[in-house]
């Protein structure tokens, strides 16, 4: 006795069948600070159907990047941006504005906030936020390191790792080969 096969949306997509609207995440990725990693992050976000926003308080850095990737906006203020469905990714942890930017993201109730950086170095966001009087519970909302541990070295690899981690988070997965 045979039964009708059950369709698997992931397999259907791989075979070029029409995508279910729920297959792609919706939301916004805010790349904080113009950088090569931010360029690639926004590029990958656009290809995944996410809205991309480049934020840098230094408006002189907000030039068109990576050929003007689709769905990318540039802003020099976080005030007034709806962050409640946004994943905020700080791509440069050495900028003097780090604490103020993170404070704005936390105050804007961003869905997810993360700072790029190596596990080998102390997290610079903690003292930056403590100096601004931010409570430990709020500081704990900031993720670091971020992305999947794939041994990233180049900006595109770091961005790929980060987007994979954000996708896993939005889908309720831990990410990596250990998850099901």
Distance between the termini: 30 Å
With strands numbered from the N-terminus, the spatial order across the biggest sheet is: 3-2-1-4-5-6
CATH superfamily: NAD(P)-binding Rossmann-like Domain
Which CATH architecture would you pick? 3-Layer(aba) Sandwich
Write the H/E string, N to C: HEHEEEHEHHEH
Number of domains: 1
- From the 3D structure, determine the CATH topology: Rossmann fold
Main β sheet profile: 6 strands, parallel
Percentage of residues assigned to helices = 25-40%
> Could you tell me the number of beta strands?
6
Proportion of beta-strand residues? 5-15%
Which residues form runs of ≥5 with pLDDT under 50?
67-71
Radius of gyration: 18 Å
Number of helices: 6
Overall average pLDDT: 85
Class in CATH? Answer: Alpha Beta
What is the overall silhouette? globular
Class derived from helix and strand content: alpha/beta
Short description:
This protein is α/β, with parallel strands linked by helices. The chain is 30% helix and 14% strand. It has one domain (24-170): NAD(P)-binding Rossmann-like Domain (Rossmann fold).
Question: Explain this structure to me?
Answer:
This protein has 180 residues and is of the alpha/beta class. The chain has a single domain (24-170), classed as Rossmann fold, CATH 3.40.50. The chain is built from 6 helices and 6 strands, in the order H-E-H-E-E-E-H-E-H-H-E-H. The protein has a 6-stranded parallel beta sheet with strand order 3-2-1-4-5-6, with helices on both faces. The longest helix is centred in the C-terminal third of the chain and has 16 residues, at 155-170. The protein is globular. The model is unreliable at 67-71 (pLDDT under 50).
